[in-house]
Amino acid sequence: MNNPPELLPADRQRFLKEHLMSEIAAETKAPKPRRRLVWLVASPLAVGALAAVTLAVPDRHHGDDAPAAPVPSASSAPSPTATPLPEPTDPAGLLARAAKAAAGSPDPGAKAAQFVYRREIQDGARETKHERKSWMSVDGRSQGLILDPTMGGGRTDWPATLSTASGAPRTAGFSAPTYEFVASLPTDPQQLLKQLLSVDRSTMVAGMPMTPKMYNQFAFGDVQMIFQNISAPPAVAAALMQAAAKIPGTAVVADETDAAGRHGVAVVGTNGTMRVALIFDKTTGAFLGVREVLLADLPPAGPDGLPPAGTPSPGAGDGKGYDYASAVLASAIVDKLEAEPAN
């Protein structure tokens, strides 16, 4: 008898299912012109620093006998002041500033036995707006917890990330991420991008050949998984922001809105026909939330479980304008389940 397949985390299963259904739908409809994604590259800003020099000039209103203003010595002269850099307004500049701020944030120094706490708002086309709290094990070896009124009973004991359905251990990685694993990732965006794109995806979608486009989308999905569920230390978070913007098929957008109405700069990618925006605070670089829009609703499944042939019906979000959105209200490292930060 064959062993039962390993069950991936719920969010990963949702991502894979949506991706598979979107790819199937894309194959069944006639090709149509696609929008061209424009790479946004930050232009270097060169600003010269000019030293202000005060010259001694006689007081002409009091004649030649008036004492001249003292000439400042080298030791007493005011320090040259650099001309402040202009605030960036272009998407790439905003993301670069946000990433720099994120990298400079204090590192919480998470320990293996601790938990990543998160309080957030979730909203969607097919669910009511609600608050969710979660505690995820830092090393993935302790059972976590999710408090969410839309889930069964409002309380879900989240299984250990590094366990299969049968309880067998497995190694942390992009398919089973933990905060501890994320903390080990490169802090250089280019190295991190290379690692994201080199992950073996051959067994992730059964029965379908992996295309370069799918590799790119899965890499972006890994970044989404980390920001949306796991969190990351400051230096790694900054690298993830910049690496995500370098994945082929993504773009940087200057202004996106999270589920709480807050505005931020976003890295936007796709998951099949789903447009996914990862939103960051323009000043602090903190992850604000995610916004997903189904660009074309998939048709109902046929008797064989696959979408019938035909063009998917237009529309997204059942009038909300988005299919799913979140807003992170608080995030911290805590010592035990149900513990919350003091502020």
In summary, what is this structure?
With 343 residues, this protein is an alpha+beta fold.
Major beta-sheet overview: 9 strands, antiparallel
Report Rg.
26 Å
Strand tally, please? 9
Q: Which structural class is indicated by helix and strand composition?
A: alpha+beta
- Model regions low in confidence, pLDDT < 50 over at least 5 residues: 1-9, 23-79, 310-316
Helix content: 10-25%
Strand content: 15-25%
The averaged pLDDT comes out at 76
Number of helices: 6
Which structural traits does this protein have?
single chain, 343 residues, alpha+beta, nine-stranded antiparallel sheet, 6 helices, disordered N terminus
Q: What would you note in describing this structure?
A:
- The protein is of the alpha+beta class.
- It has 6 helices and 9 strands.
- It has helices spanning 10-28, 91-103, 179-183, 189-197, 212-230, 234-246, and strands at residues 115-124, 127-137, 144-147, 155-158, 251-257, 263-271, 274-280, 287-294, 324-334.
- It has a 9-stranded antiparallel beta sheet.
- Strand 6 (263-271) and strand 7 form a beta hairpin.
- Helix 4 packs across helix 6 (234-246).
- The radius of gyration is 26 Å and the shape is globular.
- The model is unreliable at 1-9, 23-79 and 310-316 (pLDDT under 50).
